[in-house]
Design a protein that fits this description.
Layout lengths: L1 E5 L2 E4 L4 E8 L5 E9 L6 E7 L5 E3 L7 E6 L4 E6 L8 E9 L7 E2 L3 E6 L1
Parallel strand pairs: 2-11
Antiparallel strand pairs: 1-3, 3-8, 4-5, 4-9, 5-6, 7-8, 9-10, 9-11
Length: 118
């Protein structure tokens, strides 16, 4: 599975941004797609995940109520709508796929930088 993330950029605090991640290749093996983020010097942080077939979503407490993960099955694409952005949301955002029978996320995109200015 190959992943191509896009949509990052500079946004003011309180603003919105939508990230996209398109999957290609053996997408029939996808069980979950997710977004993670990383700030330099910190551990990678889980943001949100969606169960590919059922659409069930799970969020980190830090983004609950502000971010929405969704998917377009026909396009093999996952989205992350980010609203009410805060400077602490500044990070490189990565999309990831967990395939069937995998115990962890086994495919990763290249990351897209989101910078929130105060």
């Amino acid at each position: 599975v190959q992943l191509q993330a896009s949509g990052g950029g500079l946004v003011q605090a309180g603003g919105s941004r939508r990230l996209s991640c398109a999957a290609s290749g053996r997408t029939f093996r996808m069980n979950r797609m997710a977004w993670f983020r990383r700030v330099p010097g910190k551990e990678r942080e889980f943001v949100a995940t969606i169960v590919w077939s059922a659409g069930i979503t799970i969020y980190a407490d830090s983004v609950k109520g502000r971010f929405t993960i969704s998917r377009d099955v026909a396009k093999n694409t996952v989205y992350l709508q980010m609203n009410s952005l805060k400077p602490e949301d500044t990070a490189v955002y990565y999309c990831a796929v967990r395939t069937n029978d995998a115990v962890r996320y086994d495919y990763w995109g290249q990351g897209t930088q989101v910078t929130v200015s105060s």
